[in-house]
Write a structure and sequence with these properties.
Elements: H1 2-9, H2 29-32, E1 64-66, E2 69-70, H3 73-82, H4 88-106, E3 113-116, H5 121-127, H6 131-143, E4 152-154, H7 167-173, E5 177-179, E6 186-195, H8 199-210, E7 213-223
Helix pairs in contact: 4-6
């Protein structure tokens, strides 16, 4: 009765288009049709389609990468919305699908930590939360892997990655992330909300490896393909 009353007072809206939906949904029926899973042959490391693999040109500090959805359409709107509102239902939806992909592509949940890509202090204070942390906590609830948000921090504020191209992205994040605490001989799952060119997660993976991580794997809600 209370849930029905709350739904009437605070109706649930689609995370992509803001349409009214049932309280057990995340996307409306129309937006569900606009969700694009990543399909086809992809590189196991950078997770780009084979013809766009850039691993030889830009060596990776992480071992594997994955994302369940293409960064387009309804998922793009939902991912951008997660930067504006801390919707735990969206984070849970993303984590559920990330966990499924992990089971298929990594074949293991055997990690010591989930590490969210950090926000700069001022950005987190302004927003009130870190969307990657929401994803990390939701994924931890599913997999049982501990979240470690203390190992990395963002030292410098930089221009948003989506505003830049190619080499600019790598230069933009260089030196932006630092290690607060070492994690020797550990297997780490690094998580971000969106992967565009991959420079952010590669720089964070580099810092984690320098902090002592034996292996770093990368996951995100959505990826540009």
């Amino acid at each position: 009765m209370m849930n029905r009353l709350l739904h009437i007072i605070y109706p649930t809206r689609c995370c992509a288009c803001n349409a009214f939906i049932d309280n057990n949904q995340v996307f409306c029926d129309s937006c569900k049709k606009d969700i694009k899973n990543i399909k086809g042959k992809v590189c196991k490391v950078c997770f780009n389609h084979k013809e766009h693999c850039n691993c030889r040109k830009t060596p990776k500090w992480y071992r594997r990468c994955l994302a369940p959805f293409e960064y387009s359409g309804a998922v793009k709107n939902a991912a951008l919305g997660l930067k504006r509102l801390p919707r735990t239902d969206v984070a849970s939806f993303a984590a559920e699908h990330i966990a499924k992909e992990m089971g298929k592509r990594f074949s293991t949940y055997d990690f010591d930590y989930i590490v969210p890509v950090p926000l700069h202090f001022f950005d987190k204070a302004k927003r009130g939360y870190n969307q990657s942390m929401l994803l990390a906590k939701a994924l931890s609830d599913i997999t049982g892997i501990k979240v470690n948000s203390r190992v990395l921090y963002k030292k410098r504020r930089r221009r948003p990655q989506h505003m830049l191209k190619g080499k600019e992205r790598a230069a933009n994040v260089k030196g932006a992330y630092k290690v607060r605490k070492g994690i020797p001989d550990s297997r780490v799952l690094l998580i971000d909300d969106i992967i565009t060119g991959g420079s952010t997660v590669n720089e964070c993976a580099k810092m984690l490896r320098l902090a002592g991580a034996r292996e770093v794997y990368v996951c995100s809600f959505a990826k540009t393909m």
